[in-house]
Design brief:
The chain is mainly α. It has 5 helices and 2 strands, in the order E-E-H-H-H-H-H. The protein has a two-stranded antiparallel ribbon with strand order 1-2. The longest helix is centred in the last third of the chain and has 21 residues, at 82-102.
C-alpha cells in the first residue's frame, strides 16, 4: 500500500505583463534566513529608518528570496498589483513570525506577527 504524505507548501501566482498568463511558484522551505530578513525589514519599517524606494526594493528582494529566487524582480513588478503587494508581504511576515514562534523566538515572533497583522489590516481597508 502506497502512503502519500501531504506536504505543506506556500504558493504565489504572478501574472505576465499582458495579464493573460499566470505562473505559480511554490516553496515548502521557510528558511531561517527568510525569518531573520523579515524581522529586520519589519524593524526598519517600525523605526522608519529607510526611504520608500529602498524599502520597496528590499521587500521585493525578500519575496524573491523567500521563494528561492524562482522569479525575477520584473515578475513581481508586473505580476502583482501595487495594492496587493502589502497583503502578500504581510502574509509572508506572518508565516515567518509563526515559524519563529515555533522555534522559540517568542519576543521577535510577537513583534513580527503584530506588525504583519497591522500591515494586513491597513492593506484591506
Amino acid at each position: 500500500m502506497n502512503k502519500q504524505e501531504d506536504e505543506l507548501y506556500i504558493s504565489i501566482t504572478l501574472f505576465d505583463k499582458d495579464e493573460s498568463k499566470r505562473k505559480e511558484y511554490k516553496t515548502s522551505n521557510i528558511s531561517e534566513k527568510s525569518c531573520k530578513q523579515a524581522y529586520e525589514l519589519n524593524e526598519k519599517i517600525l523605526k522608519g529608518i529607510c526611504n520608500k524606494d529602498d524599502l520597496l526594493h528590499d521587500l521585493i528582494n525578500f519575496m524573491m528570496e523567500f521563494f528561492d529566487n524562482q522569479f525575477t524582480y520584473q515578475d513581481v513588478v508586473f505580476g502583482i498589483k501595487p495594492e496587493d503587494l502589502s497583503k502578500v508581504i504581510s502574509i509572508l511576515f506572518m508565516i515567518c513570525g509563526s515559524q519563529m514562534a515555533f522555534e522559540g523566538q517568542q519576543e521577535k515572533a510577537e513583534r513580527l506577527l503584530g506588525a504583519a497583522t497591522n500591515l494586513y489590516n491597513e492593506a484591506v481597508k
